Known about the structure:
The chain is an alpha/beta fold. The protein contains six helices and eight strands. The chain has helices at 23-36, 53-59, 75-88, 135-146, 168-179, 182-192, and strands spanning 9-12, 45-51, 64-72, 92-99, 120-127, 153-160, 198-203, 209-212. α2 (53-59) links the parallel β2 and β3 (64-72). Keywords: Membrane, Transmembrane, Transmembrane helix.
Amino acid sequence: MSVYPEVLTLHLEDPLIFDREDVEVWREMRQVNERRTRLLNSWAVLSKASGSIFALWTLALACKVTTLSVRLDDPSEAALLPTLLGDTNPFRLDLYVTFNGGLRIGHLTSLLVGVTSVKRLQLSVRFNRHVVDSGPQILNGVLSMLGSSEILTIDAVISASVPQLAWPVERSILDHLHETEDRLFVAQLVARVPSLCAISMNIGRKKRSHWTYHSA
Length: 216
């Protein structure tokens, strides 16, 4: 960190020499980096940090990150993301979620609890043929996940990973999403997140819709 003080953007993936199951190794790496962040020349701000939740968590960033962009497809990553959000206090969060059998909507319900810095959210929720949650469970889970936030704008996509080649289980969820009334879901979302000013939503096979709200 002190070696590259001019860095403003950072993209980090998992080191190939470590397995994610080597929990102690990852923890030791984070502890070492926590000590490094106390150096006088550590980064004060990054305009963007992106990549692996595991790798960014291990880095123990102790600076303001304007935009945090991460993928989420593993339950262990869901457990680490709240800490990463606390480390970086991002203004904008780009979150790309894939439900694949291992990761379930239940892993996300308390994801943004206590996170007040995120004001803009770009959310992509995708599911493949290994998904175990139903359409209603996914939509209710998204509402629960966002309910404790102070977000101002949301740009969200909820659909199959490859809608044109969807397997039967994916088609069943897509059918439910298609039948879901956009305005009703958005109304539920606004009720959960009173701070919302603007929403852009693309659910299932539907075209993207936009709503703007003005506080009283």
